[in-house]
Write a structure and sequence with these properties.
CATH superfamily: Lipopolysaccharide (LPS) transport protein A like domain
Oligomer: single chain
Structural class: mainly beta
Strand content: over 45%
Shape: globular
């Protein structure tokens, strides 16, 4: 059966990128429980998990984090839903995503949101753009994402990509002050003529 997946390729407007300093920040995690496998360099966090790395925040019910020999971190968050948030460089804007599974690749700087996936851009906490699909792959370094209506290789259940783009705010033209007269152009009111009797 041919796949009916709909793929949307969309770039976020503007030249701003994800916060560049995030890649050099340490990973901090809070949870109710933790298991550590030193041989495989894998941490498993369970219960009310909050991962922070610079401006990146991931919230989940369960999170597995591993580190490669070069020091790059990879994580898989599972929740109902799990969430991801990151600030955009130099702006008071954020990218926020949700999915039942979130995979984070620190080396490629990608976040993959799977099942009930949603990605949105916020400007001063106001949602400006929002997209939904079965899987969203967000490349935070390039601020580029791909959205699938159905997972590749799986029969489509009629899922489609849905996107809402809010109108951009336009700043109104400043009101122009009335033109001022130059001294030579000032109005002169003639004196009344003497009355003749």
């Amino acid at each position: 059966m041919a796949s009916l997946a709909l793929v949307a390729l969309i770039t976020l407007p503007g030249r701003a990128h994800a916060e560049k300093a995030d890649r050099d920040k340490p990973v901090q995690v809070e949870s109710d429980r933790m298991e550590y496998d030193d041989a495989r360099r894998i941490n498993t966090f369970i219960g009310r998990v909050i991962l922070t790395k610079g401006t990146i925040i991931i919230r989940a019910d369960r999170l597995v984090v591993r580190e490669d020999t070069q020091g790059f971190q990879y994580g898989q968050a599972v929740g109902k839903p799990a969430s991801f948030r990151q600030k955009r460089e130099g702006l008071d804007e954020f990218v926020e995503g949700y999915g039942l599974t979130i995979d984070y690749d620190g080396k490629a700087e990608t976040v993959t949101l799977t099942e009930e996936a949603q990605l949105r851009r916020l400007e001063h906490e106001r949602v400006t753009d929002e997209v939904r699909g079965t899987r969203i792959i967000y490349q935070s370094g390039a601020e580029f994402y791909t959205v699938d209506g159905a997972l590749p290789g799986k029969p489509s259940s009629g899922d489609r990509v849905r996107m809402v783009i809010q109108p951009r705010r336009t700043t109104p033209e400043p009101a122009q002050a009335p033109a001022r007269l130059k001294p030579a152009e000032s109005l002169t009111v003639p004196a009344p003529a003497p009355s003749q009797r």
